[in-house]
Specification:
The protein has 16 helices and 13 strands. With 421 residues, the chain is an alpha+beta fold. The protein folds into 3 domains: 112 residues, no CATH class; 143 residues, Nucleotidyltransferase, domain 5 (2-Layer Sandwich), CATH 3.30.420; 119 residues. It has a 5-stranded mixed sheet with strand order 11-10-9-12-13, with helices on both faces. A 4-stranded mixed sheet has the order 1-2-6-5. The protein has a 4-stranded antiparallel sheet with strand order 3-4-7-8, with no helix packed on it. β3 and β4 form a beta hairpin. The longest helix has 19 residues. The structure holds zinc ion. Zinc ion binds next to loops.
Length: 421
């Protein structure tokens, strides 16, 4: 860049200095004193207006006399003209009559942050749509510092979360690392943006932690009428213990998925004898409507053969059909019939799964009365999965927890709205 270009840019920025100041969060008694280019970085110099002798005590907000000024500090702000841009100011300490000497807050950033609120808002916006490593590269910052922004605002917003209206919840686990580590996600099934709780693990204690979280945020465990979940004993026992008034509903997505796993087991056993089954895994797992033309014709051909896999597959379709039923009594009858056939099928994985169904009969039928499912939560899973697949940034459970809240919750962040990037 030629020096005269830099000068032109500075002249332009200085010409609307006051407007510019508001755009980066500088309000009275602070004001912009100068804008300068220093080593290819834009520095917006900020100071207290002349004659200001008191600022609010950070503890009690009482106007307190200025005590001293610290050395200059920099806060990263939104870039201008592609320059990495910073606010530069000398922090002020005040002496409160009651609380003594403390650093006064600045209007453009919370204490301890290296970024102004506008830059933080940009990070939150970008983190919803792209892996943090990508965001970090784009914004020319280290991703650890950006994660700190996200976790700060998620925790801050969680402090204001009101769960007093929650009645129906969905509980689901989500693996977050090779090595079988899990998060449990709890969703409010009556709101559009569903996530209300995220915690590490998927054991019996997870629902106790959710109960505590619910109470802490104005909710009432006794007001929870339905809990939709998979058939794991950990969640079921947690539900009985901590939400004894709620009806447990076994989510039909999970039931079908488990039956799909049984089909897959049958196929894996059978393909030792039947070479024709090799490479057909997805054909049996997916629904026919999601198959390619080629897969579909393969399925049609295979279906004509006398294979155990075909019988297991048909049992899965039958089970799926039952879920189309809206009358509980009819569903109960159909499910009994299905159970009888599955347990007499001589397909071990299907039999084993049928026994699991029998053990969870009540919660499976509860679906037909309520039609409550974790569908919204499932949708969220694929969204997170898509973000995760692209990301290497989820090194810790805390980071992933924050992303799940960021993408899936209705948390309201205390940040300025950015009209453009
Ligand atoms: Zn004070």
């Amino acid at each position: 860049m030629r020096p005269e270009d830099g000068n032109a840019i500075l002249a332009q920025l200085r010409s609307f200095q006051d407007m510019f100041a508001k755009g980066v969060g500088i309000v009275a008694p602070w004001h912009v004193t100068d804008i300068a280019l220093v080593a290819h970085e834009l520095e917006v110099r900020v100071d207290l207006a002349d004659g200001v002798i008191t600022l609010a005590c950070p503890k009690c907000q009482a106007p307190s006399p200025v005590y001293d000024r610290g050395p200059e500090r920099r806060w990263r702000t939104l870039d201008d003209y592609m320059f990495k841009s910073f606010l530069v100011a000398r922090p002020v300490r005040v002496r409160c009559a009651e609380h003594g000497v403390h650093r006064a807050e600045v209007p453009w950033a919370q204490a301890g942050s290296h970024f102004n609120y506008h830059f933080q808002a940009l990070v939150m916006q970008k983190a919803q749509n792209a892996p943090m490593a990508v965001v970090a590269r784009e914004l020319r910052e280290h991703d650890t510092r950006l994660w700190r922004i996200v976790t700060h605002h998620v925790n801050d917003a969680l402090g204001r979360l009101d769960l007093s209206g929650v009645r129906r919840i969905g509980v689901d686990d989500k693996s977050y690392q090779v090595g079988h580590k899990y998060l449990t996600v709890v969703a409010d099934l009556d709101t559009a943006r569903v996530v209300i709780f995220v915690t590490v693990g998927r054991d019996g204690d997870t629902l106790r932690r959710f109960r505590d979280h619910l109470i802490e945020h104005g909710g009432d465990p006794a007001a929870i009428t339905q809990i939709s979940q998979d058939m794991s004993e950990a969640y079921a026992s947690g539900a009985r213990k901590y939400f004894p008034d709620a009806t447990v509903i076994f989510d039909h997505f999970h039931v079908i998925k488990r039956m799909g796993e049984a089909v897959d087991k049958v196929r894996r056993q059978e393909q030792h004898e039947q070479d024709i089954l090799r490479g057909t895994r997805y054909i049996w797992l997916k629904n026919a409507t999601n198959l390619t033309q080629k897969q579909l014709s393969r399925l049609t051909d295979l279906s004509k053969l006398n294979l155990r896999t075909v019988r297991a597959y048909k049992a899965r379709l039958d089970l799926q059909d039952i879920y189309g039923e809206s009358d509980v009594r009819i569903a109960d009858k159909l499910l009994r019939r299905w159970y009888y056939r599955a347990t007499h099928s001589r397909l071990e994985p299907a039999k084993t799964f049928a026994y699991t169904i029998a053990d969870h009969w009540h919660g499976i039928l509860a679906f037909f009365a309520s039609r409550t499912t974790n569908g919204l939560l499932e949708g969220l899973n694929s969204l997170i999965q898509a973000t995760k697949a692209k990301a290497r940034g989820y090194r810790t459970a805390d980071a992933l927890k924050s992303i799940v809240y960021l993408i899936g919750s209705a948390l309201v962040f205390n940040l300025p709205i950015l009209y453009s990037e």
